[in-house]
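Q: Give me the 3D complex with cytidine-5'-monophosphate.
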Amino acid sequence: MSLSPTDRIFVALDTPDVNLAVSLAEKLQGHVGGVKLGMEFYYANGPQGARAVTAVGMPLFLDLKFHDIPNTVAGAVRSTLELNPAILNVHAQGGPAMMQAAGAALDGADGEKPLLIAVTVLTSLGDDDLEAIGVNDGAENQVVRLAKLTQTCGLGGVVCSPREIKAIRAACGPDFKLVVPGIRPEWAAAGDQKRITTPAQAIRDGADYIVIGRPITGADNPVDAAKRIADELAGL
Ligand code: C5P
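A: Here is the predicted complex, encoded as C-alpha cells.
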C-alpha cells in the first residue's frame, strides 16, 4: 500500500515536557503520520509519558537506539512492545547477533510487528572521528556496510542522513525502509543541522519516512507548517 504524503512525516517531539508533547501531538493529529520520541523525552518521562502521547492516537517512532549485548537489547525491545511502537531502533554497530536478537524479540508483539531499523553511523561523526575509533575507510563506506549488514540480519531498514539515501537505496533495494532526519523546508531555519535537504528532495531521492522537528514544533503555527510540508510532498 502506498503511503500518503502525511503518512511519511514523523514529527520529532524533542522535549522533556509531557504536556507540551501531548498538546503538540493533539494539534498535529491528522497532519503528520506519527510522532518520534527520543531519549530526551523518554528518560524524563518513561513509558508512562510515552503512553500519554500515544493515547492521542498516532503511530510512535520510539528512537532509543539500543546498543548493548544481545540478551539485554532483546529484553529492552520486549519491554517497549507494550507501547505498540510503529518503529523501533538499535545501533547496527552492536553487531549481527545483537540485531538478530532484537529482531527475534519482536515475536512477542501483539498484532502488527514494529518496523525495526538500525542507526548505521551517527551523522555527527566525521571521517576523523571514525579513524579515532578504528574505522579507516570513511563514513560512506561504513554506512553502506552497516546498512547491508542490517538487511542481512533481517531488520527492515535504517535511519540515514539525506546524503546517504541514494547509496543505501542502491545497495539495499526498494523494500528496505529509509527513515531520514536532517530535513529542512526551504522556508525553515537550518539550526544546528548541516547536511540538510528539503522534504521533497528526500522523498525523490528514495526516503520512505522523513523526521522533522523544529521546522514544525518551533513554527508559530505547527499545523500550517505540517500542511505546507505535506503539500510539498503531494506535488511530487
Ligand atoms: O529539529 P530537527 O528537525 O533538527 O530534529 C531532527 C530529529 O532527528 C531530532 O530528534 C534528532 O535527534 C534526530 N536525528 C537527527 N540526525 C540524526 C539522527 C537523528 O537529526 N542523524
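A quick observation: The longest helix spans residues 39-54.
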